[in-house]
Design brief:
With about 525 residues, the chain is of the alpha/beta class. It has 21 helices and 16 strands. The strands form 5 sheets. A 5-stranded parallel β-sheet has the order 6-3-2-13-14. Strands 1-16-15 form a 3-stranded mixed β-sheet. Strands 8-7-12 form a 3-stranded antiparallel β-sheet. It starts with a strand and ends with a strand.
Length: about 525
């Protein structure tokens, strides 16, 4: 396994993300800390608050772990230290773990926690925050596997009524998905271990939250990764004041988000639409309902409240409320002493809208670290890439355009001109010896002419073989282009966003992520670059 870096500038990332990485000063008014500045990170460490409810938070997390079926006493003990900090990341609860970037977020968090624990001389805990309030079932219910020359998506066939994905129980149809994947992926020395892992974690009747938490704990618990989340009654009781604050200060919060969003749109883009509130209500029958501000109060679907009624409902049943994308980070940072959050490009963008939100909750935005970004290149793909005249980033283009360009390169070889010149040279070279032989023995004149003609006939045969060889090579390399694209840019997107990490575990083993963590343990993560990791 070896690695090399590749510039983000040639890759399909947003203007905002590339500016954040390469020219932070142009975005410094939207964030509190430069993620690539040691001085800024050290300053955040000094300012990270230790909440009065820290002991209560630890107790609630321990109880939360019990419901998930995991035991993380060691990590909790470390977080319990009054000097502890946390590097946090999070992601949706994808079927069988989801795309590769879930892994990249996790290993970034682990490696940053190690790095800053060493630099600061204080405990730093890597935390994975389960997106257990999310309700977008369709977005997580698939597994992506690259084929020989194409990319295939396998759907988990089940339904949701809008309740949080975390609460959904895995249905019998998971066995059908497993069978489809087993047929698609080759059986390897690691297949039994992979299916043992996922059969255990993702068994029928298990909730998505428990399945995902158990999987992450088995893969990364050894590295000290702590699982956290908010979709739990005891935790909701702790963060209820944030829900109440979002109601009391709804107008000020709306203004803060709108002002920042309009400012970022001047030169970049606003990632998330700003609404009148940042809360959802969880209805037992209708699922997750957006709470809207009205002239005379508040509403969520068929429900209506006055301000006092809404606050009373929050106080009595905080577990019935759920934060949106803006309020979730606030809750996270109330529960954890967050040094920084490891964010994907889209998250980096929506955090740009949030800087002025934090002060309304007596908080400050933490360091927003960009996640590690990479493409895994298998040896078979690496070998054929050397035979194709395209750089890595070019495979993000349409396959038709790549085929056309490659075919044109083949056409640029002037085979006809090559053989015409050869024949012309042969004729010129034959004149002198022809005349000399003729003068020596006139009866050999026809034989010499026949010999020269035979040369020309053989050249014509060779020319035909050359044309056929070029066509065959063109067809072979077109197939290679399809294969490379299917592996590196499936559906015109980077591998990390489309390919499920189960694919690589099946081929290279459960410890492939440990190997990558080890690969970067004594080296700079280079979060300002994309990485090509050759397996």
């Amino acid at each position: 396994m070896n690695k090399e870096s590749y510039t983000f500038e040639k890759l399909p990332f947003s203007k905002l993300f590339k500016t954040y990485i390469h020219d932070y000063s142009k975005l410094s008014s939207f964030y509190n800390y430069n993620p690539l500045s040691n001085e800024d990170i050290q300053l955040r460490a000094e300012r990270t608050p230790y909440g009065d409810s820290h002991a209560q938070n630890i107790k609630a997390l321990k109880s939360y772990h019990t419901t998930l079926g995991i035991n993380q006493e060691v990590a909790l003990k470390k977080l319990e230290n009054k000097n502890a900090l946390a590097v946090v990341t999070g992601q949706q609860l994808g079927v069988y773990g989801g795309p590769l970037f879930t892994i990249y977020k996790t290993l970034t968090t682990i490696l940053l926690a190690r790095e800053w624990e060493s630099k600061l001389g204080r405990p730093v805990v890597p935390v994975f925050w389960l997106a257990d309030e999310d309700h977008d079932f369709e977005e997580i219910a698939w597994v992506g596997i690259p084929g020989n020359t194409d990319f295939k998506k396998f759907e988990y066939q089940a339904t949701s009524n809008g309740e949080p994905v975390a609460d959904l129980k895995i249905e019998d149809s998971i066995s059908t998905l497993m069978e489809e994947l087993q047929e698609e992926m080759p059986e390897t020395d690691f297949s039994d271990a992979i299916w043992d892992l996922f059969t255990t974690c993702c068994s029928t009747g298990q909730t998505f939250a428990a399945a995902f938490a158990q999987m992450m704990d088995k893969l990364f618990g050894k590295h000290g990764l702590l699982i956290a989340g908010s979709n739990y009654k005891e935790i909701k009781e702790i963060v209820a004041p944030a829900f109440l604050c979002s109601v009391d200060k709804s107008e000020e919060i709306l203004t803060a988000l709108q002002t920042q969003s309009e400012a970022i749109e001047n030169d970049f883009h606003a990632q998330v639409h700003v609404g009148s509130t940042n809360l959802f209500y969880i209805d037992k029958e209708k699922g997750r309902l957006k709470i809207e501000k009205e002239a005379e109060g508040w509403s969520a679907g068929h429900l209506k409240w006055s301000t006092s009624e809404l606050k009373e409902t929050i106080e009595n049943a905080p577990e019935s409320f759920s934060p949106n994308v803006f309020l979730r980070p606030v809750i996270q940072d109330q529960l954890l002493p967050t040094l920084g959050y490891v964010a994907g490009p889209g998250e980096v963008a929506y955090y740009a809208q949030m800087k002025e939100l934090y002060p309304h909750f007596d908080l400050e935005m933490p360091v927003i670290f960009p996640r590690f970004s990479a493409t895994l290149i298998e040896s078979g793909i690496d070998r054929i890439m050397d035979k194709i005249p395209f750089e890595f980033h070019r495979y993000g283009e349409r396959i038709e355009d790549l085929e056309s360009e490659y075919a044109k390169k083949s056409e640029d070889i002037d085979v006809e001109g090559l053989f015409n010149n050869w024949k012309s040279g042969l004729a010129s070279a034959s004149e002198e010896p022809h005349e000399l032989i003729k003068s020596m023995d006139g009866s050999l004149d026809a034989t010499v002419g026949k010999t020269v003609s035979t040369f020309e006939n053989e050249l014509n045969k060779l020319k035909g073989k050359v044309y056929r060889s070029i066509k065959q090579q063109e067809q072979t390399n077109i197939q290679r282009i399809h294969k490379i694209k299917a592996q590196l840019y499936p559906e015109n997107g980077l591998q990390e966003r489309m390919v499920s990490f189960i694919y690589f575990m099946n081929k290279y083993g459960l410890d492939i992520w440990d190997e990558i963590i080890e690969l970067y343990s004594d080296d700079d993560l280079e979060l300002d670059k994309h990485h090509l990791i050759k397996l």
